[in-house]
């Protein structure tokens, strides 16, 4: 009997993904994305299989196009189709104001909030002795060199309110202390243990406006 996606029930997760089963392979890959478990991945796959011409094939083409075109910005670490990215190339940005974030998702959250009109620097993570992440694993030296270049007038630390975020912030303050540039950090509104990319726009804007010396 031919496969009918409109009535098919996707089987429970196998202990190992059969290499010749494209449906299970797709579920497995989607379930590895942040915020998607196997149940959500199964629902998404079933929905796409019910209308592959309008949902699955355009998605596949968009994924391929993005994979080929998007690259990290060599200046700040943002992801864009241009290098330097659109933010770094924008002459309307305050070029003396650099906001340091853990990842691109935090950068996008701050842009969504519209609270920061300067530039960014993506570290690519936070320091963590348990995870084996040291200063050499992050974009810290490029930040120091960027600040030492003389154009930066203030560095804003917009790091997560976690132990790792606090450790990274203290390390950055020590590294930047010899340079004549003030270092500030986000103030009220960011709860302990909170990630920036899940906060509402108003909270992010208030935290940026009320930043304090680091």
**How many helices does DSSP assign?**
8
Q: Over the alpha carbons, how many angstroms does the gyration radius reach?
A: 21 Å
Biggest sheet architecture: 5 strands, mixed
Please give the alpha-carbon distance between the first and last residues. 67 Å
E-strand count = 7
Low-confidence stretches: 1-14
Strand content: 5-15%
The spatial strand order of the largest sheet comes to 4-3-5-6-7
Task: Supply the key terms.
single chain; 214 residues; alpha/beta; two-stranded antiparallel ribbon; disordered N terminus
Structure explained in plain terms:
There is one protein chain. The chain is an alpha/beta fold. Helix content is 40%, strand content 13%. The protein has helices at 22-31, 38-50, 52-69, 86-89, 104-113, 141-148, 163-176, 201-209, and strands spanning 71-72, 79-80, 94-101, 118-122, 154-158, 183-185, 212-213. The strands form two sheets. The protein has a five-stranded mixed sheet. A two-stranded antiparallel sheet has the order 1-2. Helix 5 links the parallel strand 3 (94-101) and strand 4. Helix 1 (22-31) packs across helix 2 (38-50) and helix 2 packs across helix 3. The radius of gyration is 21 Å and the shape is elongated. The protein starts with 21 loop residues before the first helix and ends with a strand. May play a role in DNA repair. It seems to be involved in an RecBC-independent recombinational process of DNA repair. It may act with RecF and RecO. A zinc finger (C4-type) spans 73-88. Pfam families: RecR_C, RecR_HhH, RecR_ZnF, Toprim_4. Keywords: DNA damage, DNA recombination, DNA repair, Metal-binding, Zinc, Zinc-finger.
């Amino acid at each position: 009997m031919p496969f009918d996606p409109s009535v098919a029930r996707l089987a429970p997760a196998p202990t190992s993904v059969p290499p010749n089963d494209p449906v299970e392979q797709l579920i497995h890959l989607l379930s590895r994305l942040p915020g998607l478990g196997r149940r959500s991945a199964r629902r998404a796959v079933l929905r796409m299989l019910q209308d592959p011409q309008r949902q699955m094939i355009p998605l596949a083409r968009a994924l391929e196009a993005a994979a080929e075109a998007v690259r990290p910005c060599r200046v700040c670490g943002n992801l864009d189709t241009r290098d330097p990215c659109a933010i770094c190339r924008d002459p309307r940005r305050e070029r003396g104001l650099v906001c340091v974030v853990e990842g691109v998702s935090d950068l996008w959250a701050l842009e969504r909030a519209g609270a920061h009109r300067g530039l960014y620097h993506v570290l690519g993570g936070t320091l963590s002795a348990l995870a084996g992440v040291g200063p050499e694993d992050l974009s810290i030296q490029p930040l120091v060199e960027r600040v030492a270049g003389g154009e930066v007038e203030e560095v804003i630390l917009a790091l997560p309110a976690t132990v790792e975020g606090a450790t990274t912030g203290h390390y950055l303050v020590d590294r930047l202390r010899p340079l004549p540039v003030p270092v500030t950090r986000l103030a009220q509104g960011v709860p302990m243990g909170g990630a920036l990319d899940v906060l509402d726009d108003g909270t992010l804007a208030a935290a940026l406006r009320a930043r304090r010396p680091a």
